[in-house]
Amino acid sequence: MKVSKKKDNKYKLVVFDIDGVLNEHGGNIQRQSKKAIDLLRDRNVRIGYASGKHAWYIQGGLVWSGLLQKDTVIVAENGGVIYEPNLRKTYLEDKYIDDVKLLRSVFYNLYSKREGFLNFAGQTVWEEPKETLFCLYPSEKEDIKKLAGLLQEIVDINRLSLYLVENPDSVDVLQKGINKATGLKHICKWFGIEMKDIVAFGDSLNDLEMMREAGFSITLENGLRKIKNLVRVKGKNGYISAKGCGKGVLEAVCMLVENNLV
Question: What is the structure's pLDDT at 3?
């Protein structure tokens, strides 16, 4: 698909969640996703990435995939870290960071080591180190809800200013008031744009606020029902692809281009 370059785009920034959008959870970024991003770059559209992962992990993946550009922006740790790789500019959310540290301390007082994993209340889990939130992966995805319940109990007993998000393969415990949308608002201030200037791609519960506040929201065939319902409510400012991650991204970006939305 050949497209002409444009200087004035309706939407100034397209932001992608990564796992479940650009790639299947735990997999590599798919070639269709790369093609879609190339189409946007041809239209002079700035690209951003919003993920629950650590900023350096995201940057490494983008370098490995050939997607890191001079104007790339990153919202990491579900909004806890905002990072501009080219300038090495970083902003960390730390209003309730002491509560995150206390939760981690309580957890490590309760666990025991077991074959490289951690035994926590009868579950085998491991922590993915992050700066502004606490993240645990159970060895069995079926244990997500049980793990979330245990963590919620610790949060409630200690009256911590934290909240939980259940992901397909992990549980994040974040500072209250922090999410991908709050991270994007910092980026808006950095570059003189507004949330209405952003197209957001997402599929999971940690994308909810971002999808709600972006000017145009896109989810894929594999998106959660709650995310699809949100996109439907947005009407003409939303789109649900007929295909899943990778292919669905390319489908949606072609739609944006063909309708001169970017």
Answer: 41
